[in-house]
């Protein structure tokens, strides 16, 4: 039941990301998110017993290469997101997407060719049981599992190397996604190395190495959750922040726009929720500027607190205020500044 619900959520989030991509400006990050979520969604769906049994009746053990493809797609999606985060790769997203597509496709085709070339052909089995039997047999079967993990291993390791240096730049809750990505990529690297390495070593080991099958599912889920939550974290955080910010600045915004309707502007029709709220904060700052000019306050002056700006706005005088003091201080996000003023203004 959990797998069905989890798969449905993954398909839905992936669909939302693809919809966003089709209706908004092109973004390699959104594309990577969509591919990552649908890759994991496909894998979780294929692991649902009823789905696996139904497919076995149609394509036999062909479900195994399908899982090779889903794993490669998930790794490719995460790698595309990571590539977009590298400053040196800015403007080269299409090139890196082509590289990742090529590597993932080559890995999948190589693993699939080995899988179907293996002899003797094994009977149709549950995929988990089939893997145990196949890797113990070695040869093309074992190689197919090992080759299927090469690209996921390289992608996860590269993601880890990209985001670890960014940990020192974590300054606010919006940046916590970097931590999740590092954990997910690190664990996924270990998972791919362990699974691929065991596929090569299994024919030469005595026994079934049960510990590998006990550990790898845990690593798979931890790695997947780290990557899934990491790549979508900032999007969710921005949505939550935008919802709260819209509520906090609504009163001040409505008041100032009523005074200075000329500051209103239409947001780009494909703007995100946070971009729309940021546009409203700019309208507030423009209206404050117009109000300051109408009251004849000087252009330059000392910095003022949000409370002082709110008190000045609520009063009718022009003393102790300047145009500079109404603008967001250097290094302060404009939306944060407007929110602070709005909070103080609401209690005037």
Plain-language structure description:
The radius of gyration is 27 Å and the shape is elongated. The protein has 14 helices and no strands. Helices cover 74% and strands 0% of the residues. The mean pLDDT is 92.
List keywords for this structure.
single chain; 348 residues; mainly alpha; 74% helix
**Radius of gyration over C-alpha positions, nearest whole angstrom:** 27 Å
Which whole number gives the mean pLDDT?
A: 92
Query: How many β-strand stretches?
Result: 0
- Strand-residue proportion: under 5%
Shape: elongated
Tally of helical segments: 14
Task: Report the end-to-end length measured between terminal Cα atoms.
Answer: 53 Å
| Helix content percent band | over 70%
Structural class: mainly alpha
Q: List the secondary-structure elements in sequence, H or E.
A: HHHHHHHHHHHHHH
Low-confidence stretches: none
Biggest sheet statistics: none
Keywords: Membrane, Transmembrane, Transmembrane helix
Transmembrane segments: 72-90, 97-118, 150-167, 179-198, 218-240
Write the layout of secondary structure elements.
Elements: H1 2-23, H2 28-46, H3 49-59, H4 63-84, H5 93-117, H6 127-137, H7 139-148, H8 150-163, H9 176-201, H10 210-259, H11 273-295, H12 306-314, H13 323-326, H14 334-345
Helix pairs in contact: 1-2, 2-4, 2-10, 4-5, 4-8, 5-7, 6-7, 7-9, 8-9, 9-10, 10-11, 10-14, 11-14, 12-14
């Amino acid at each position: 039941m959990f797998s069905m619900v989890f798969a449905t959520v993954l398909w839905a989030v992936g669909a939302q990301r693809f919809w966003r991509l089709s209706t908004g400006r092109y973004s390699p990050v959104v594309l990577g998110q969509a591919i990552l979520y649908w890759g994991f969604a496909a894998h979780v769906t294929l692991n649902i017993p009823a789905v696996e049994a139904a497919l076995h009746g149609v394509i036999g053990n062909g479900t195994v290469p399908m899982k090779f493809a889903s794993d490669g797609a998930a790794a490719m999606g995460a790698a595309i997101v990571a590539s977009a985060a590298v400053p040196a790769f800015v403007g080269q997203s299409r090139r890196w997407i082509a590289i990742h597509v090529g590597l993932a496709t080559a890995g999948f085709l190589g693993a699939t060719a080995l899988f179907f070339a293996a002899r003797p052909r094994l009977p149709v089995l549950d995929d988990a049981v089939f893997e145990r039997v196949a890797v113990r047999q070695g040869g093309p079967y074992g190689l197919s599992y090992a080759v299927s993990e090469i690209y996921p291993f390289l992608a996860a390791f590269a993601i880890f190397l990209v985001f670890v240096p960014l940990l020192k730049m974590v300054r606010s809750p919006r940046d916590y996604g970097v931590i999740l990505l590092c954990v997910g990529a690190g664990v996924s690297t270990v998972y791919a190395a362990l699974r691929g390495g065991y596929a090569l070593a299994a024919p030469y080991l005595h026994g079934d190495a049960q510990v590998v099958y006990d550990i790898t599912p845990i690593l798979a889920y931890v790695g997947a959750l780290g990557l899934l939550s990491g790549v979508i974290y900032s999007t969710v955080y921005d949505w939550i922040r935008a919802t709260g910010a819209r509520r906090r600045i609504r009163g001040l915004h409505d008041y100032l726009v009523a005074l200075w309707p000329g500051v209103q502007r239409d947001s780009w029709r494909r703007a995100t929720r946070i971009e729309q709220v940021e546009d409203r904060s700019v309208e507030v700052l423009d209206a404050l500027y117009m109000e300051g000019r109408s009251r004849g306050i000087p252009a330059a002056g000392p910095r003022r607190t949000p409370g002082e700006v709110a008190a000045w706005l609520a009063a009718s005088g022009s003393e102790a205020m300047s145009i500079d003091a109404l603008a967001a201080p250097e290094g302060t996000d404009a939306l944060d500044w407007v929110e602070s003023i709005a909070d103080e203004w609401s209690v005037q």
